[in-house]
Amino acid sequence: SSRTIALLSQLEKINLDSVAGESDHARYVTSKILHLVQSQEKTRKEMTSKGSTGIEVILSTLEVKFFNFCGYGFIAVLHFIIMKCGGRRASVLVTKGGTQILLQLLLTASKDSPPNEELMVLLHTLLAKIGPKDKKIGVKARINGALNISLNLVKHNLQNHRLVLPCLQVLRVYSTNSVNAVSLGKNGVVELMFKIIGPFSKRNTSLMKVALDTLAALLKSKTNARRAVDRGYVQVLLTIYVDWHRHDSRHRYMLIRKGVLQCIKSVTNIKLGRKAFIDANGMKILYNTSQECLAVRTLDPLVNTSSLIMRKCFPKNRLPLPTIKSAFHFQLPVIPASGPVAQLYNLPPDVDDVVDESDDNDDVETESEIETEIDDDKDQHFKNDDIETDINKLKPRQELGRPIEELKMYEQFFSELSENFQEWDLVSKEPKPLVPDANLSGPIVVPTASVE
């Protein structure tokens, strides 16, 4: 009944037929659909309305054939619909299997030499938009072999910010999967991120923000965090943070400063990262910058994140503190001549008495295997054996604070708890008979009709 439905019907027929010259017809239909989608709001609603098969027809066309002839046009149609219609349309595209098809198209397009830049921008923008809607996009990208395509594009096009930005957005989505983060780290993505981020500059701040978010997600992996520490990147992050803090006097780039702090927070999750942070004078740097941010309420996120980092990295001691680190000295009443307590009191003042037993010295291969198992277990609903299910064990035991003999002195104040009260019969002037109840521990009174 409309021009759009007629064009989609023609496209379905083209998908089923194999006729010479069909590529020209497909190109013509594609151009008409793209024109209608770009110019008319009504067409976009028809394509994405409930019960419409518009997106399904386009995806099936991209999956079956005509990629070389009209694939760019159809990807442009999907891109325009998603960017104009919002997140709900992205969810529709995911439920129709669009993620798998777009990843396959990305793999096919990457084989061209050189790849089509405009097509790569559209594909990565679409994947970055629908990625948060698809929880399995990281696994799908790894299975399809599309994981390193975006990374290679960034490596070879560092100065092409128009292409690098959507690629970094896709890498940020991939990095939420721990196995992908380890795999990308082995291929040099951490070093690549530090080539993009840098000192204060008002140019390409959006690219800087996405790169920091990607780096923070990558550094959540202990393998990548250890690699960053070994290359001295903790000192680099602190230097970058101080530089942005000094130059951002109007506080317009608070999100970038917070992104740097998130990277520091991720890398200090391991013992080596905390040690590198202390050695780089990080405690003093974050304390001084936080003091300068206290007067501005909009900078509270920076102060909160800095406080979390400093609390995590500050040396830990047990109480009572027998060293000069404490302003108060809590002397134990009795200190044994030997044993762990005596050893703590005999420690020199500059030694922490709490041993950091973080498991950050495991082999990279072992950690990768553990992260793979954790990633697979997220898809399964398993029973937690640590949860107690015995009701009798869960009931708290009520124990008297004093013996029963001592409590008998209070009987005179609570006579209703010890006296045997009975109801009297008004006719016979005698107590009514008591009938025991099997469900109660004591007797109950059987009621009788009252006599006037």
TrEMBL record:
Annotated stretches, region: Disordered: 432-452
UniProt-listed InterPro entries: ARM-like, ARM-type_fold
Recorded GO MF terms: carboxypeptidase activity
Superkingdom assignment: Eukaryota
Keywords: Carboxypeptidase, Hydrolase, Protease
Protein name (database record): CBPC1 carboxypeptidase
Natural source organism: Sinosuthora webbiana
